[in-house]
Amino acid sequence: MDGTLVQLKPGATERPSFRRLYETYGPDVFAHLVLRTRDRALGEDLTAETFERALRAYPRFEPQRGRTRAWLLRIADSAYADHFRRAQRRPLTVPADPDITARSSMLSAEAAALRQAEVTRIYAALDALPSLQRTVVLMRLGQSLSHADIARLLDRKEGAVRMIYSRALARLRDTLKDGSR
User: Fold this and answer.
1) For domain 98-179, is the CATH number 1.20.1250.20?
2) Alpha helical stretches, state H, 13-129
3) Distance (Å, rounded) from C-alpha 69 to C-alpha 21?
4) What is the CATH number of domain 18-86?
5) Spatial distance between the Cα atoms of 69 and 77, rounded to a whole number of angstroms
6) What is the pLDDT of residue 8?
């Protein structure tokens, strides 16, 4: 979704119903949070918190000022950050990859273990990135957001986001290359 599905026509004064926002953007917000947390249950909790916050803020929401999806993802990122601040930033655990679990009966135990080890290695490399670089990579690759959308969400210039993303990918390449030796 490009964020314009629930946008108002220029000059319109009505907002779309909150239910319509939830139905339209709920799956995107949930996917974004599951990607960030790597925990489906926590993603569900934070999605609920995101929409609770959005509902409280909805009377002040001005869709003509920006993209609806970006507004909701900003709220989601705030809920995510608040959750981990409250939990004193305890380290994230790497859950079993659901695809591996679902296909484990088709794979040998050794192949499944090797695949899970690779997933763990990738998550560890992501976790080693500075917070801003990790956020940009997850938004770009996990959510398929454009550099412009990420820039709006993070209140940065698009060129700065492109540089952060480029440096993050270079760092990931180096980290993963060094770990494969």
Assistant:
1) no
2) 18-37, 40-57, 68-86, 98-103, 109-128
3) 9
4) 1.10.1740
5) 12
6) 41
Alpha helices in 129-156 (DSSP H): 131-137, 147-154
For 68-84, give the DSSP string: HHHHHHHHHHHHHHHHH
Q: Rounded to whole angstroms, what are the CA distances from 53 to 59, 94, 127, 159? A: 11, 28, 27, 30
How many Å apart are CA 76 and CA 138, to the nearest integer? Answer: 14
CB 179 within 8 A of CB 122: no
Scored b (16 or more CB within 10 A) or e, 100-132 reads: beeebeeeeeeebeebbeebeebbebbeebeee
* C-alpha span between 133 and 127 (Å, rounded): 10
pTM value is: 0.54
At 129-165, the pLDDT tens digits run 898 898 888 888 877 788 988 888 778 899 999 999 9
Instruction: Encode pLDDT of 16-68 as tens digits.
Output: 688 888 899 999 999 889 888 888 899 999 999 999 999 888 888 776 776 78
**Domain ranges within the chain, ordered by starting residue:** 18-86, 98-179
Residue 70 tokens, joined: 């970006």
